[in-house]
# Entry
Amino acid sequence: MRTTHEEYDLVVIGGGVNGTGITVDAAGRGLKVLLCEKADLASATSSNSSKLIHGGLRYLEHYEFGLVKQALAEREILLKKAPHIMWPMRFILPHRPHLRPAWMIRMGLFLYDNLAKRNVLKGSRGVRFTDQSPMVSQINKGFEYSDGWVDDARLVTLNAVDAQSKGATILTRTQCVSAKRSNDQWEISLENTLTGDITNIKAKAIINAAGPWVKNFFDTALKKKSPKNIRLIKGSHFVVPKIHNDDQAYILQNEDKRIVFVLPYEDDYSLVGTTDVEYTGNPLEAKISDEETEYLVDIVNKHFKKKISAADVLHSFSGVRPLLDDESSSPDAITRDYTLELEHEQGKAPLLSVYGGKITTYRKLSESAVTQICKYFPKATAPWTKDAPIPGGDFDSQDSLLDTLELAYTFLPRSLLKRYVRTYGTHSYTLLHGVCSLDDMGEDFGAGLFNKEVNYLVNNEWAMTADDILWRRTKMGLRLTPVQQSDLSQHVMALLNDEKNAQVA
# Structure
């Protein structure tokens, strides 16, 4: 056990999108912040979403107009802040009259277009399907509207990068095992989940942004009852070879009143999801069931000429959403809005807990949470994140940045540079620093995942395993063979061992 004299203004529990968003916001307002995450950044819900920045068209059916309005406004803000990892996407909604009448869809799309100001995205319109359409012949018309795409795990990591650049301490593989109030402060014990080492620190405030573990943090670390209940809802997705060649995404209606997305994914694939299933157990162990796979396959096959089966699934993932328990009768009706619960002891040692939320409104949630905590820190500065770019997002268009990189690195394939633009943005220059030839990129572990990039991710983005690199920092797990993934894993372990030995020496 190690006791330090380190004192922080704020300790944030949880390295998902809300935790990292809160950390960077607070660090930018002048607070001394530490974030601890018991696994990898974005290792649970925040890397297993539908990867959409959207208002939530179907939430209008549940009369969540306030949530949709806020999400639509945030959608525009985020698309401007992060043009490398977010971009506009057009959605096709095939019309099936027995499920929802056309007038209802038109009314919903009118609200969707006008509830919040649109500067980036085009409005909705009706569409007719021709013989060349990927839709089955029975479906001959539909609607088209705009939303946005996001690389969810990159969003989390880049917020952490930004927070660290503003002085925050980011500790992954570190769990808060105990927190208790003492002399108007929090005494906190942090456990390194790899070594078992315990470090004791102090903080003036705590924000519990543990996502699916928000209630568990009360049970285990605080030893007290959570003021709110949550319901864990599993949403599963799978990846298959491209179902269609359009740039558009599809939003499919089903007889159970739910919807399923079919999204263009990593150029060569389609991402299909999501489900809504009540879940119990460890969120890190959530997996798609055979029933969920069959459910998604069936909906796709009702709509598309190209049929798929479970045998076509190349990859699947399941995220567990910690939704506020509003006593809704079905999972899809549970609110996706968030609640912030603040409590303190005679105006000291505040604890703020985050319940619920969705990725689109993470910035607004973070701003609201930090504003509440800053009441205890009179010297904190004003909110600032609305107009600040996400790291690497300080450029105008992907195409122009790609053209500039291609002129500077003529020896690198355009396809590789395109992936860098959509992963690192202008930080591609940092990754490629000192590279004057293809040989300078080092070993290719497969599909253009070079040693130069792997080292960058280990040294700059807290990557500690092959999975961190293949599924969260990138999506290269789709393209590397099992042998190549094993080679990468050994390389990463060797890198970390070399780093450890250098620190000891």
Notes: The mean pLDDT is 93. The chain has 13 helices and 18 strands. The radius of gyration is 23 Å.
